[in-house]
Amino acid sequence: MIRNRARRSAVTALLALSLLTPTVAACAENGGPSAAGQASPSAPTEAGLSLPRPSGSYEIGRDTLHLVDDERRDPWVPSAGPRELMVSVFYPTGRGSGGGGGSARAPYLRAKEAELLLKGQKLDKLYDAEQLTSVRTNARSAARPAKGRHPLVVLSPGFTLHRATLSALAEELASYGYVVAVVDHAYESFGTEFPGTKDSSRIRTCVACEKVEDAPGGDAGERKMLAKAARNRAADISFVIDELTGHPRAADGRHPDYAALIDPRRIGAAGHSLGGNAAAVAAGTDHRIRAAANLDGTFFAPVPSAGTGRPVLMLGTREGHNPRAEDVTWPRQWHHLHGWKRWLTVADSGHLTFTDLPILGGQLNRTDPSAPLSGERSGQITAAYVTAFFDQQLRDRHRPLLDGPSKANPEVTFHAP
Question: How far is CA 145 from the centre of its chain?
Answer without folding.
Answer: 23
